[in-house]
Amino acid sequence: MTIEQLNEIRESKRELVMVRKVIKEEGEKLAQKTGYRKQVLICGGTGCTSSGSHKVVDTLEASLKKHGLEDEILVVKTGCFGLCALGPIMIVYPEGCFYSQMTPEHVERIVEEHLRDGNVVKEYLYQETVHSDGSILSLNETNFYKKQMRVALRNCGVIDPEQIEEYIAVDGYQALAKAVTQMTGDEVIDEVLKSGLRGRGGGGFPTGKKWAFAKAAEGDIKYVCCNADEGDPGAFMDRSILEGDPHCVIEAMAIAGYSIGAQKGYVYVRAEYPIAVKRLQIAVDQAKEYGLLGEHIFGTDFSFDIEIRLGAGAFVCGEETALMTSIEGHRGEPRPRPPFPAVKGLFGKPTILNNVETNANIAQIILKGSEWYSSIGTEGSKGTKVFALGGKITNVGLVEIPMGTTLREIVEEIGGGIPNGKKFKAAQTGGPSGGCIPAEHIDTPIDYDSLIALGSMMGSGGLIILDEDTCMVDISKFYLDFTVDESCGKCTPCRIGTRRLIQLLEKITSGKGEPEDLEKIEELAMHMKSSSLCALGQSAPNPVLSTMRYFKDEYLAHINDKKCPAGVCKSLLHYEIIADKCKGCTLCARNCPAGAITGKVREAHVIDQNKCIKCGVCMQNCKFGAIEKK
Amino acid sequence: MEKKTVHAFNGTAEQEEQLKAVIREHHDQPGGLMPVLQGAQEIYGYLPYEVQSMIAEGLGISLSEVYGVATFYSQFSLTPKGENRISVCLGTACYVKGADKILEAIEQKLGIKSGECTEDGMFSLDSTRCVGACGLAPVMMVNDEVYGRMTPEKVDEVLAKYMNNDKAGEAQ
């Protein structure tokens, strides 16, 4: 492949893809040139596939054929649009109509009324995009998208990830071409360094510095690894990038390889992400076929190849040295550092490891320049950050915001607030290694440094919103349960420390806690932080420490009053029937799985507290609000 | 290693051929053990002692090394799974939306605990970390089918699909 050939492909496909970027009038003009009257984009990411988007695609294709429209209307299976809670999502261009929660039945009607006759089916549109005067907003004008800025996710939901030519149409592989033909390795590293890009996997180490260390290391053989072992439960940014734009990761790895003098790259990806693995494999194969990976890329001396390795379900393998040990085919246990991987990494050779989202920024930095990139964000944190917004929030999905956006903007504007009229209690960032940001700090700008100051961390980008029904002691126990499970067992502070810590928490949530337990937790946490071998153990106490810092009263309520204020910890609550309100309808007794409720018809019933398993089924079933949780 | 096989191993000659092909493919690849174990699990459904020793011999490494790696990663199983594999996501997004209650409901319904298999071999139950379908939390999976926005009440409905007529469940 030469640069001329690359440009030729870009020009031939450009208009087809641009129809999806400009909307309405301009898009219509463009659409006429492409030969397709309309384009229908359907999300084929994990979220929408789980809601049945493949059935929607099948119905759509069959229906288009039935109506003889298959040559006029192009169906594109894309990656994630971000609003996973509304899936399956379907967008029609050039109008930019945003159909949500599609079913095969909806599709039949849309094909006839909209695609064939040109009348938008407004009742199937995402409600927010239909204006009161009947006009239709495009996706970018909704609250969810308005405040976002898409750099890493720029192609997700825009291109077909299984077509390399669509990626090339949006300037794909131009950055690689520029790097290998116009820049030296040092110049590439310098550009990345000046951009201020920091690792998006959680640590926040300057990416350019990492590359510079590996470049300076002695050795003929060097490796570039990509960490796609997204282990934080509740985070799915990396998965969405791999599913929606796998080529951007491949291009970035090749650029990194060129800059440090590596010939081989490995992507270590979770086996739990079958769609991501499949698309990445297709992308690697296509890149090889087009000569964008392999020998003498763009006719230069630079050669680079990529191999995909699957993880097998071990959270610790997200730690850099553990990941490399795992690629080597061993138990994925971390190694002491130094030596750092930049000096002695995979197979004992100098290695750089970047996370998927970090990679997704690289091509843009090379193309648009470090000055452009560093103009986004805050003093210490440049660029954007992708968050997987989840938990008790209306718009669950993927959001990308400039660094420095406040938590309030994310929760209230982009996220659409807390459902069911509940109150915002805290946001959890950084998963099992992070902590929480309580409601009083909701105006904190999100960047690396301010989150650390609050006792949390950026983490890889899981952002779980908690409402008043969440018990903070229980949520710490949840994370500890995770780290106990995932501790690899190599070092004692982590292996035994996590277990002791969860025992203390279990003691508290079961109503046996004593005031001195809190001191014990703090002391144990300090030892784990200072003496664990890797970040997993060092950060395992964070969820506990952070909730103790902001919600100490909740811990004390569990310990002193033997009460769980949020009504979550089972040992500390019980269900009671209010005799005055009970009509004796027997519904609760019939539904109780433990047979704990007795009483005669039309007389007040009673719960036997010894038999009650506190499942709450009685309360859900009672039509008279006669059952109380205390 | 002490031979501890509760379930009788009944691998076929055909499976053995497939395994040998996988071993040949990754034999000279650095760090080839993991891909071989993944391939073997795909062929047999689990990694019994017999399969582990074939791998050790094929790759020319010790059985203890194979066993060490096989037991380190949660994806590898040394015991057979049920005909229908149920997994309940206990990732954070699902957990805060009540995934523990879904798991409990299934445990009660099937009379097994997480990590176990029903006596008739029809269902095995596991909890899993984040399948990435957080938009649909809480989520459970049966084989490769994802069921989102679960409630304890919906559990019966989902399991029924696989109970009455196994084939109907697979055709999904």
Quick rundown:
Chain A is α/β, with parallel strands linked by helices and 630 residues long.
Explain what you see.
The complex is a heterodimer of chains A (630) and B (172). Chain A is α/β, with parallel strands linked by helices and 630 residues long. Chain A is built from 26 helices and 17 strands. With 172 residues, chain B is α+β, with helices and mostly antiparallel strands. In chain B, a hairpin with a 2-residue loop joins strand 3 and strand 4 (145-147). The N and C termini of chain B lie far apart (42 Å). Residues 1-5 and 166-172 of chain B have low confidence and may be disordered. The chains are: A alpha/beta (630), B alpha+beta (172). Chains A and B meet through helix 3, strand 9, strand 13 and helix 19 of A and helix 2, helix 4, helix 5 and helix 6 of B.
Keywords:
heterodimer; A: 630 residues; alpha/beta; Glutaredoxin; Rossmann fold; Ubiquitin-like (UB roll); five-stranded mixed β-sheet; four-stranded mixed β-sheet; globular; B: 172 residues; alpha+beta; 2 domains; 10% strand; disordered C terminus
